[in-house]
Amino acid sequence: MHWNEGASDCTAAPQSPLQVHQYEPQTFILRQNPCASFEANFIYLLIGSDKALLIDTGAVADPKAMPLAKTILELLPDKDGIKLPLLVAHTHRHQDHRAGDPQFAALSSVQIVPFDLEGVRGFFGFTNWPKGVAHLDLGGRIVDVIPTPGHNATHVVFYDERTGILFSGDFLMPGRLLIDDAAAYHESALRVIDVLKTRPLTHVLGGHIELDAAGRAFRFGSHYHPNEHRLELAEADLTALPAAFETFNGFYARYRNYILSNPMRNLLVEAIAALAVLIFMVWGVRRLLRRGRGSLNRSAAQIS
Ligand SMILES: [Zn+2]
Ligand SMILES: [Zn+2]
């Protein structure tokens, strides 16, 4: 699948805000155009016989700029003369995964899962978070919900038994895996691997693509993604994740299909480096001034 790559000049090349791909009759992959938001989120619609599940609502709130709810309603089949009920859930609470929520708020037969930790735990019925697996029954289609804190405390991933796909949000994707809590992230990776031991895994589909085909990251905030990395990651990328954390230097590590990064620590390192440069510059300027004053004194002595 070739996804819209945005543009270096978005105003010169207007593009459709939302790309819709039917993966199979009851599974849709939607991609927000990089020109509409540099986050260019992937959103997933899973349809069962009683209910549909929407995973994330993306980075854009304005329905005129991003007609997400309208598009989803058009994709939803009818049952007994009315639209199939829709459950809107999130991989985690970061704004780029739920900005579209208000578009669904006023719709009848749409239920939105809360995005705060208490709400997530309560809705899915986790009593021993982050342990345990919750199950959503869409009607002939079971989706498992697995807690995966680490990138964010509220993160969950969804395993779909119909397609064998793991919908992994920002937990695992061809991009920067931004670490908030490394120990929790490592534990989450181990738990997901353990849960999937007894389930066939076809693809891992995340929330963004931030790398090009060679594994290099696009500049952060870029609206242009030429020659993007493929969206789907494989089981091997998941099984390699715990070892990546075990050897992680705590700051930054680049792998073939993802980058581990601790943004707060890297920011701290940059701040320390900037401070060191500043101290060096002040020291240099003072030295120059002192030298200048010395030669002034010498020339004053020669005149007298
Ligand atoms: Zn995130
Ligand atoms: Zn994200």
How would you portray this structure in words?
With 304 residues, the chain is an alpha/beta fold. The protein has seven helices and 16 strands. The strands form four sheets. Strands 1-2-3-4-7-8 form a six-stranded mixed beta sheet, with no helix packed on it. It has a five-stranded mixed beta sheet with strand order 9-10-11-12-14, covered by helices on one side. A three-stranded mixed beta sheet has the order 13-16-15, with no helix packed on it. α2 links the parallel β7 and β8. The site of one zinc ion has 7 residues, from loops. The site of one zinc ion (ZN) has 7 residues, from loops.
Characteristic key phrases:
5-stranded mixed sheet; single chain; 304 residues; binds zinc ion
Q: Spell out which ligands are present.
A: zinc ion
Indicate the radius of gyration in whole angstroms: 25 Å
Overall mean confidence score, pLDDT: 95
Beginning-to-end CA distance, first to last residue:
85 Å
Q: Could you say which overall geometry the principal axes of the C-alpha atoms support?
A: elongated
Secondary structural class: alpha/beta
Question: Can you count the beta strands?
Answer: 16
The largest β sheet comes out as: 6 strands, mixed
Low-confidence stretches: none
Topology pattern, helix = H, strand = E:
EEEEHEEEHEHEEEEEHEHHEEH
Strand order of the largest sheet: 1-2-3-4-7-8
**Number of helical elements:** 7
Q: What's the helical proportion of residues?
A: 25-40%
Question: Strand fraction band?
Answer: 15-25%
In short:
This protein is α/β, with parallel strands linked by helices and about 300 residues long.
